[in-house]
Amino acid sequence: MSSSLRTLLANPQLAQQLLSEAQTRGFVTAMAAAPHLINPSEWLAFMWGGEETSPFASQEELEAYANAIVELWNESRESLLDGSWQWPEGCALDDKELVSTETREFAEGLLQGWQLSRDDWETIMPEESENNALLGGVLLCFSLLYDPENAMEALSQEGADGLAQFEEIFTSVPTMLSGLTIRAYQLVSKGDEEA
User: Fold this and answer.
1) DSSP H helical segments within 1-147, as ranges?
2) By its UniProt entry, which NCBIfam families does this protein fall under (predicted)?
3) Burial call 44-70: b when 16+ CB within 10 Å, e when fewer
4) Which domains, and CATH codes, for the chain?
5) Element (H, E) at 99
6) With contact defined as beta carbons under 8 Å apart, do 48 and 17 qualify?
7) For the whole prediction, is pTM greater than 0.85?
8) I want to staple 32 with a disulfide (CB 3.0 to 4.6 A). Which of 25, 77, 102, 134 is the partner?
9) Per-residue pLDDT tens for 102-152?
10) Cα(67)–Cα(163) distance, integer angstroms
């Protein structure tokens, strides 16, 4: 994440109106993973709650924010497609809380962003398809990371060692998310060739 974006997100006047840094990363990652490219002009306002008017004091500030978001999107898209995507700094497991605040917020942002591209995902990976299992697995992982207490309880009821399972889920996310993005890209490319 660029220092200019970090600075904007740390601005006390904007902090209450914009998604946090981890939520922003999650949301942008969801947009970068989407099967069809969605123009940032269509989703940028969701970064400040969907309001028509942005919370920025000047047009220059808004442009700096938008440019930084697009730069983050480009970095995320590239790393997802080449399989090098990793959890952002601060996202980790936590002994007391199971996951760090950053992990929980990243998962929240990603799940929010996924809602915007949901129809595209369901079109290219319909319920009956084997690809849908990959999509479902990724979404389940992020749902569990967003709500780890209930996830641990559910894992324990299944007789699993919740903590070990949780660690496995967290560790597998980068590979699964990159794999999902690459598969979606292949399906969309194939569809474009056939059209």
Assistant:
1) 3-10, 12-15, 21-33, 40-43, 59-81, 101-124, 131-146
2) ygfB_yecA
3) bebbbeeeeebbbeeeeebebbbebbe
4) 3-194 (1.20.120)
5) strand 98-99
6) yes
7) yes
8) 77
9) 999 999 999 999 999 999 999 999 998 889 988 999 999 999 999 988 877
10) 40
